[in-house]
Design goal:
mainly alpha; binds phenylalanine; Hydantoin permease
């Protein structure tokens, strides 16, 4: 139970409430959602199970675990590289994750101040613009959020955090249901649902498919060793399949519900559905501003969202911290500070992407756009690919069957997915999207 809670705490975060709706908005809705669900089931689930079983078998940080298991299976210890790439991906993701975690904290303060009470869409957008336009404000809350994350990781993850998760995820979901009720009454609920659930495949590009797959990895926290690091603490007798399924169901339900809350609000208020990263910070303040008791509900919602982001940020730090602690024999506090400050410094690039360096664009866009693309659309899918290859082809049937509780039907299905479906699926989508594979 504690494990499922910890992994759920890692999985449920800004990916579900912030990134899923805005990415779905940018890529045109229905077809994107369908591909996303397909990726969660056919690729995400088997990869998550692989990460957990690798983590539990190695019982070390991801870098050392990959080296150990590589050797144990009579193959190369160079598999440690896979762990190392995961550690780097975690650092890069946390660098911008913390900036948006900072937004959620800032919005608690803003809602409480009453600026959104009875505000119109233009007012809410003006507040967002003023906040985003000031690198000092964004930077300040980025600093606060990162400080909080370092603090918890430095003190050791267990205890308080697990208890927080147990309360936080269900309460967040409850508030989401209340918001759903509000959305249903906007008069644009059907329109929102149609956007999310009517697939229009003519709008679907290969880049959108890759983004859906990357989003599945991001939301489930897989492809970079975070779940592997948590798996290291999993008791022998716990079922990996059941745990992974529970996490995937919780995570997906929350993401889909968030979409069902946000899209009707977008249509009801004539907002731009492709608004990008700040979509959540426009739609929700607007809704809370019009609700009775919206100040309290709104503040509570953003408190919970900050918590959800916090528990995810901690898991993003964990693999790098575990690695520094074990490899360089540092204390947790030193390691957490070292890694956290590094992430913070890289994060300044994202802080500046919306103001001072807004027009500084290269490759995919701003600094944030580039780090986002590199991590979510490149590092996580490729990390997932190699994790699948490792679990499916490098590890022996005996080792994996032992971890997954014997060679029954579900084991055979997992092995089929992890050996064939996941690797070919990931590779195909990746090559197609970056234009290296030209099939008509
Ligand atoms: N899954 C987290 C979220 O949805 C983000 C995350 C990604 C956490 C990768 C850990 C590892 O917000």
């Amino acid at each position: 139970m504690a494990f499922v809670l910890a992994v759920t705490g890692s999985a449920v975060g800004l990916g579900n409430l912030w990134k899923f709706p805005y990415t779905t908005g940018q890529y045109g809705g229905g077809a994107f959602v369908l591909v996303y669900l397909g990726c969660v089931i056919l690729i995400g689930m088997p990869v998550m199970m692989s990460e957990i079983l690798i983590g539990r078998r190695g019982r070390r940080n991801p870098v050392a675990t990959m080296a150990l298991l590589g050797a144990e299976e009579g193959k190369s210890t160079n598999w440690s590289w896979l762990g190392a790439i995961g550690v780097i991906a975690g650092v890069l993701i946390l660098s911008y994750y913390s900036v948006y975690g900072g937004y959620t904290v800032a919005y608690i303060v803003k809602i409480l101040s009453g600026v959104f009470s009875n505000a119109k869409a233009t007012d809410v957008i003006a507040v967002r613009d003023a906040f985003e336009g000031s690198w000092v404000s964004v930077g300040l809350f980025h600093t606060i959020f990162m400080g909080l994350s370092i603090f918890v990781v430095a003190r050791g993850v267990e205890g308080g955090l697990e208890r927080a998760n147990k309360f936080m995820v269900p309460t967040l979901f409850l508030l989401l249901i209340i918001l759903l009720g509000y959305s249903m009454n906007t008069g644009h609920f059907a329109e929102g649902l149609a956007f999310m659930f009517t697939p229009d495949f003519s709008k679907l590009t290969w880049e959108a498919v890759l983004a859906a797959m990357g989003q599945a990895f991001f939301s489930l926290s897989i492809g970079m060793g975070a779940v592997m690091a948590y798996g290291a603490y999993l008791p022998e007798e716990t079922s990996i399949t059941t745990s992974a399924a529970a996490v995937a169901v919780a995570d997906t339900t929350i993401a889909i519900t968030a979409g069902m809350v946000i899209f009707p609000l977008v249509f009801a208020n004539g907002l731009d559905i492709g608004a990008g990263p700040s979509l959540l910070f426009i739609t929700l303040p607007l809704a809370f501003g019009q609700m009775t008791g919206g100040t309290i509900f709104g503040a509570l919602f953003f408190v919970l969202l900050s918590f959800a982001a916090w528990t995810s940020a901690i898991s993003l730090l964990e693999s790098a911290v575990a690695w520094v602690v074990e490899k360089y024999k540092r204390s947790r506090a030193e390691a957490a500070t070292l890694i956290g400050v590094t992430c913070w410094a890289i994060g300044l690039g994202t802080v500046l992407s919306f103001n001072v360096l807004k027009d500084f664009r290269f490759l995919r866009g701003t600094i944030y756009d580039n780090i986002d693309f590199l991590t979510i659309n490149v590092m996580l899918p490729l990390g997932g690919l190699f994790i699948a290859i490792f679990a499916g082809w490098v590890m022996s049937r005996n080792s994996t069957a032992e971890e997954l509780g014997g060679a029954g039907t579900s084991y055979r299905l997992w092995r089929l997915l992890v050996r064939f479906a996941a690797p070919t699926g990931i590779l195909f989508i990746f090559l197609k999207a970056i234009g290296l594979l030209k099939l008509s």
